[in-house]
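Researcher: Please translate sequence to structure tokens.
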Amino acid sequence: MNQRKYYKNAPSRLFLLLLALVILFPLALIFVSSFLTSDEAGMTYAGVFQGKQFASFVLMPARPDFQPYADLFLYCGQFYTMFWNSVRDTALITIGQVLTAVPAAWAFAKLCFHLKKIWFTVYLIVMMLPFQITMLSNYFILDRTGLLNTPWAFILPCIFSTFPVFVMTRFFADVPDEMIEAACMDGAGSWQVFCHLGLPLGKSGIAAVAVLQILETWNTVEQPMFFIQNPAHFPLSLFFPNLTAETLGSSFVAAIVMMLPPVFVFLYGKEELAAGIGHIGIEK
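Model: Translation complete:
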């Protein structure tokens, strides 16, 4: 019976295997290209820098070269500056979003106040607006407040993102009202109910928000590119727009390094992330 079931699912397994190979192929190409010599990399990707539409690729370098790794880790001080800038920005944005989004989500889910539904609808509308629509107004505000061309020009707008509020609201909506009423009957105030009831029951949602925000912030390109002009404040995601034929090998190495933190974060928080996605899709 088990063998028959295995062969019955064989087409699905084969399809998923082919899909995985398609997804992993670009990653394998980046890894292989990081070992190309400068001459071989220039010949392989000449089409990119000569204005052609296509570039060739190699599955195995003719002579593996570790010079791109040495160029990046030993001789490129800008890489370390941008790397720690990304670590700083990601940490501050994630902590700031948790501190602001969690209380706001609890208010939308469990508190009663004037025009609550209208305010939450406004939140949803703002969440659906792409960055290209809001960037000009954000630019003027940051310019008038003197934050433009500083790390805070990227950090502060991201801290007050609306998406974490939406995710956490769905989590807190599942907290039984009976538990809140029982806590209030025992003399607990609103802040005590939030700290001792809402936070413990919503910890999986908080973890999901943190994982999502780390993955998003680490790879953000448009906001820092638009609001920051000083290279000393650039995150690692802006290391790649400076791509040239001479820095091609180091750029492939930097791409590998940039992929590692999100992969580790995803592996560590995949269960919380799956729970967050599941709550977003639940029909109330």
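Researcher: Any highlights?
Model: The mean pLDDT is 82.
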